[in-house]
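ok so i was messing around last nite and threw this chain in just to see what happens. nothing serious, just curious
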Amino acid sequence: MAVFSEEIEMEEAGFFRKNEKRLAREQRKLSRCVKGSRNYVRQKKKVARCHEKIRSQRRDHLHKLSRRITDQYDIVAVEDIDMKAMSQCLHFGKSVQDNGYGMFRNMLDYKLAWKGKRLVKVDRFFPSSKKCSKCGKIKKELKLSERVYRCTCGNEMDRDRNAAINIREETG
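result:
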C-alpha cells in the first residue's frame, strides 16, 4: 500500500483477502435461501457482519498507520494516484481496493491539519518511478514487471523506494 523513503516497519494488511473465503461461504448460503424467509434474513445479517468486520479491520489499521506517520513527521508527501483507473486497467482490482488508499489519504490529511502539519500532493504525472534518485536521469521506458530500478550510474534499488525518494526530493 505504501512505501516510505525511510525504513518504516509496516505489516501487511489485506483484510479482504484474508476473509474472502468466509465471506464467499456466507454469500453462497444466502443465495440458497428463499427470499423473504426468516433464514434469508438471518443469513443476510451474517453476510453484513462479515463485511462490517473487514471494514472495521481496514479502518483500524489505517487509523493506526496514519497516526504513527502524523506523530513522526511534520511534512508528508504523497503521490496523487488515480486508484480507480489503477484497479481497472492493471489487474490489481481487489488488492488496490482492499488497501483503502483514498481513505488513508483522507485520514492523513485531516490528522496532519489537526496537528498543524502539512500534506503535500505530488502530481500523478511526475516521473517518480522513472527518475534515478542518485543522478536524476529519467528512463524512457520502465515496465511494471521491473521491480528493481537499475540506472547506468550504478544505482540499483527497489523501484518503489526509488519513487519514494524522488517524491521526497521533489517536495524539498
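not much to say yet. Helices lie at 15-32, 38-72, 83-89, 93-99, 101-114, 159-171.
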